[in-house]
Specification:
Oligomer: single chain
Strand order of the largest sheet: 4-3-5-2-6-7-1-8
Keywords: Acyltransferase, Lipid biosynthesis, Lipid metabolism, Membrane, Phospholipid biosynthesis, Phospholipid metabolism, Transferase, Transmembrane, Transmembrane helix
Structural class: alpha/beta
Protein name: Phospholipid/glycerol acyltransferase domain-containing protein
Family: Belongs to the 1-acyl-sn-glycerol-3-phosphate acyltransferase family.
GO molecular function: acyltransferase activity
Radius of gyration: 21 Å
Number of helices: 12
Strand content: 5-15%
Helix content: 40-55%
Largest sheet: 8 strands, mixed
Organism: Oncorhynchus tshawytscha
Length: 365
């Protein structure tokens, strides 16, 4: 019985945040719909500002749980610009919580509402969220031969024409790195060797298409590329063996007390436009990541192991930047659920909003 109580208490650590974040989604969609109607006759730029502001409020709610609620310690190596910039954010990819790390950096630049993603095509089927990410400026892509370059160029060009602020998050590896999936790692290394590239141990061989198309399509609109390397300290085992990164539920259960983020700003002039040279440039960036991660996990020097090069700065996010969003969305959701008509609208939004969203994202991805 005691064990059951412990397990139940443990599960509540992530069920409560999950219920709140998912539970406020219908109200978010209804709020977006109302704002969209109100701005229908106004210039598109005004709608984009409204959409970014609304998204900022919702993502602040998400960060309340992933940062303030968990009490995770964020250690940043490198100088994150204080001002907002139009950027492409390139990072290593190891778990679903990686999406939240982008939010953590963006809110520190007051650019949270500008975050948009390049996503796997299958994620467009997420109820409510799949459609919304697309209309917010996200791009769904397929792999290899199925990659639709023209569609991506069209989507990004339409936003740069409007001067839409851009914080585009891309994970060039395409697949999450898991140290326990030895075959996946060896296949990635074999592919790199076949292509005349260096084999990597702690990251997968990056795919260049989406990154190259994004950067070249928006080159005149971008200020820089952010090269990000992330380590969840929970992956640092007692031996030199790297452990799998935490899932979102595990992160919410406070199983990763510290996250190390290496930040490097790359000027646009340093990035070659030609695809053949861009491929080499991108792989070189991942070689640098691999070297830093190898030192982090495997160094025998205690002054180097468990750290990135340089001096890490602890970065605390004030609860006053996230708590108001929790109160705002909670204050809109709870009254709706307290009336019969409100509950009907809530359920219908989940059902019909999802169905219409699936139709939308397949007709106009």
């Amino acid at each position: 019985m005691l064990l059951s109580l412990v397990v139940h208490t443990y599960s509540l650590r992530y069920w409560f945040p999950a219920v709140v974040m998912l539970g406020t989604a219908p109200v978010y969609v209804l709020s977006w719909g109302a704002c969209r109607v109100l701005t229908a006759v106004l210039p598109s730029r005004l709608y984009r500002r409204m959409d970014d502001h609304l998204y900022n409020i919702y993502q602040s709610l998400v960060l309340f749980f992933f940062e303030n609620y968990t009490g995770v310690e964020i250690v940043i190596y490198g100088d994150v610009p204080k001002k907002k910039e139009n950027v492409v954010y390139l990072s290593n990819h190891q778990c679903t919580a990686d999406w939240i790390i982008a939010d953590m950096l963006a809110i520190r630049q007051k650019a949270l509402g500008h975050v948009r993603y390049v996503l796997k095509d299958g994620l467009k089927w997420l109820p409510l969220y799949g459609w919304y990410f697309s209309q917010h400026g996200g791009v769904y892509v397929k792999r290899s031969a199925k990659f639709d370059e023209k569609a991506m160029i069209k989507k990004l060009s339409s936003q740069t024409v409007l001067g839409t602020p851009m914080y585009l998050v891309i994970f060039p590896e395409g697949t999450r790195y898991n140290p326990e999936l030895k075959k996946m790692i060896s296949d990635s290394q074999a592919f790199a060797t076949k292509e005349g590239l260096a084999a990597l141990d702690h990251v997968l061989t990056p795919r260049m298409k989406a990154s190259h198309v994004a950067i070249e399509t928006m080159r005149d609109h971008l200020d820089a590329v952010y090269d990000i390397t992330v380590v969840y300290e929970a992956t640092l085992g007692k031996s030199s063996d790297r452990q799998p990164a935490p899932t979102m539920p595990e992160f919410l259960c406070k199983e990763s007390p510290r996250v190390h983020i290496h930040f490097e700003r790359v000027d646009m002039k340093e990035i070659p436009p030609e695809s053949v040279f861009f491929r080499g440039w991108l792989h070189k960036r991942f070689e640098i990541k691999d070297q830093m991660l190898t030192t982090f996990y495997e160094s025998e020097d205690p002054d180097k192991k468990g750290k990135f090069p340089g001096e890490g700065q602890r970065s605390h996010l004030s609860i006053m930047k996230t708590l108001p969003s929790l109160l705002f969305w909670g204050g809109l959701t709870l009254p709706m659920l307290m009336t019969e008509s409100g509950r009907k609208l809530y359920v219908r939004t989940w059902v019909y909003g999802t169905l219409l969203g699936w139709l939308w994202v397949n007709v106009s991805p």
